[in-house]
From TrEMBL:
Organism this protein belongs to: Streptomyces paradoxus
Source species, domain of life: Bacteria
One GO molecular-function entry: oxidoreductase activity
InterPro entries the record matches: Amino_oxidase, FAD/NAD-bd_sf, TAT_signal, Zeta_carotene_desat/Oxidored
Name of the protein in question: Uncharacterized protein with NAD-binding domain and iron-sulfur cluster
Gene3D superfamilies tied to this protein: FAD/NAD(P)-binding domain (3.50.50.60)
Record-annotated Amine oxidase domain positions: 45-543
């Protein structure tokens, strides 16, 4: 599919969204919707969102999930860790991060009832006060306060944007002035680039090349090339699409400026994810009549007369059966979904085969349970010099409704330091091996060593071995230290060119629809927002297919600054004349 066709589809999906849905139930599906059934294949954020939107419109929905509802977004119990009537210690695939650039997911959260919360689950979001870029080798850490709410700035101009970004890079990150000026100019090039240049040139340009990282200082490369791509997008700077990386940066910059934001830049949940969000969501969906089949694994789709006639599933006991519905929404991660598309299904819609060209990588969490509160900071840590590209957050301080020792574990655990490991193929500092080459216990010791190398190198001891109670590594990772390690819950990554292989939510099979963070959506990044948006698109496509009169789901795009639209139009003319962006000085 061409970039132009994809943009037309996304624009149509967003434009037909209608008004933002409130907490009340939308109009019913109409045209016989009460008799129509939908099988949602996958119970992660995409699947639960699809079930939510469909059930509120009167469809009969059954969700089939192989592992646990919530998918990679869920929290999980650490087996055998709770004693004396306390709950098990909280584990997770990775910590939750719900920035203000999200709009569709927060809308869903507002519509999930939660006792005592007028704004539903959304009221369980809290904003950390700061973030830290931790440096190793004795270099001073970079501590940045975060505004809780941005104020609407004066009219933006290219010069104001350039000067503001240069000041941040020069002051906060202490980059050489000429490098800060150069990066600010490169970012301005992207901000004023037309959609065609973004989709057709910057999508095929690696971020490393776009920001000329090879010419710059080590700090420039670590912070603005490797740090942004590996720690946030979980892909390599030398491979990552400029379109993806810069689109994310653009959204965060506007968020900081108070433009088009749902809330503060950094938001997290005020309790373990299932308690604060997933469990109330499932309870609400059950009240709408949604049925759940957990432990049921989708193995295949059957096709007849150009339609899906059934989904072959494996029940918890291992027996196989075929389940049927009027419509099917495939809401599994791409690496699992494409295994269910047999040759007949793929032949019916060539875009499914294109998904084989999408790539995933490892970005997996480990939690360290501590017997003392750790005085790190009130927010996220980005350990930009760590070989395994670690990010982390100390969670107990953000869960005001919990007395951690009284509520969790054996009564001695006071905090949970949740860490995401983004780089699994680079040697560490303790064993000289990659994370995949280490055993599970070696991974834990290596991550702990890298945390201490970054946090204990500036004259104070932040992490002490004596307070380490235990650790928990995501059980989706298996076979570590063997020739064939596996990770059942990987993350979609964004090497150059992959945007054009992402499918639409509607397929050429009239009763099959796609939802998941790999689907083409306004936010070009594997995120919960992308999963939520894709499910809304899938439901809208289903409503169109059935001729339903129900209100369409909103699909809110990322913010576009109106002041820059004239420059983008000018750039479109230049692009069609094969001229560079007016700010592109090479």
């Amino acid at each position: 599919m061409s970039g132009t066709t994809r943009r037309r589809f996304l624009g149509t999906a967003a434009a037909t969204g209608g008004l933002t849905l409130g907490a009340t139930r939308p109009a019913s599906a109409g045209k016989g919707a009460a008799a129509q059934t939908v099988a949602v294949l996958g119970g992660g954020v995409a699947g639960l969102t699809a079930a939510h939107e469909l059930a509120e419109r009167g469809f009969r929905v059954t969700v089939y999930e192989r592992k646990a509802l919530g998918g990679k977004a869920r929290s999980m119990d650490v087996p055998g860790s709770g004693t004396g009537g306390r709950r098990p210690l909280p584990g997770e695939h990775g910590f939750r991060f719900i920035p203000g650039i999200y709009h569709n997911l927060p809308d869903t959260m507002r519509r999930i009832p939660f006792p005592g919360n007028p704004g539903g689950v959304h009221d369980n979001l809290v904003a950390p006060k700061e973030m830290l870029f931790a440096r190793s080798g004795g270099r001073e850490d970079i501590r940045i306060p975060l505004p809780l709410a941005g104020s609407t700035p004066a009219e933006l101009t290219p010069d104001e944007i350039r000067r503001a970004l240069t000041a941040v890079l020069d002051t906060a990150f202490n980059l050489p002035l000429h490098e800060a000026l150069y990066f600010a100019n490169r970012f301005l090039v992207f901000l004023t680039s037309c959609d065609e240049r973004r989709d057709e040139v910057w999508e095929r340009t690696p971020w490393w090349e776009f920001v000329r990282a090879g010419r710059m200082s080590d700090d420039y490369r670590r912070i603005l090339a490797v740090g942004i791509t590996r720690n946030i997008v979980a892909t390599k700077a030398e491979e990552a699409s400029t379109r993806t990386v810069a689109t994310l940066m653009e959204a965060f910059v506007f968020n900081l400026l108070g433009r088009g934001a749902d809330g503060p830049l950094d938001r997290i949940l005020n309790a373990p994810t299932n308690e604060a969000w997933i469990d109330p969501w499932v309870t609400y969906l059950r009240s709408l009549g949604v049925e759940f089949r957990v432990g049921w694994t989708v193995r295949d789709l059957t096709l007849g007369a150009g339609m899906i006639t059934g989904a072959v599933v494996e029940e918890p006991g291992g027996a196989r059966r075929t389940v049927t519905a009027d419509h099917y929404i495939s809401a599994m991660p791409v690496e699992h979904a494409r295994r269910t598309w047999n040759s007949a299904v793929r032949a019916a819609d060539p875009q499914l085969a294109e998904c084989d060209r999408l790539e995933t990588d490892w970005m997996t969490g480990i939690q360290f349970y501590l017997t003392e509160r750790t005085p790190i900071l009130h927010g996220h840590l980005n350990l930009i010099d760590s070989p395994w590209s670690l990010t982390a957050i100390a969670q107990a301080q953000h869960w005001p409704g919990h007395d951690f020792p009284a509520d969790f574990g054996d009564g001695t655990v006071a905090d949970c330091l949740s860490v995401d490991v983004s780089e699994w193929d680079r040697p560490g500092i303790l064993y000289g091996r990659t994370a995949k080459q280490c055993t599970r216990s070696e991974v834990a010791r290596e991550v702990w060593a890298q945390l201490k190398a970054a946090l204990n190198d500036s004259g104070r001891t932040v992490l002490k071995d004596s307070v380490l109670h235990s650790w928990f590594l995501d059980p989706a990772v298996d076979g570590l230290g063997t020739p064939h390690p596996v990770n059942e819950e990987q993350l979609l990554i964004h090497p150059v060119g992959t945007f054009h292989h992402r499918p639409q939510s509607a397929t050429r099979i009239p009763n099959l629809f796609l939802a998941g963070d790999y689907v083409a959506v306004p936010i070009d990044l594997a995120t919960m927002e992308g999963a939520n948006s894709s499910a809304r698109q899938a439901v809208n496509a289903l409503l169109e297919q059935t001729g339903s009169t129900a209100e369409r789901c909103t699909v809110t795009p990322l913010y576009r600054a109106p002041e820059l639209e004239a420059l983008k139009r000018h750039d479109r003319t230049r692009y069609r004349l094969r001229l560079p962006n007016v700010f592109d000085v090479g």
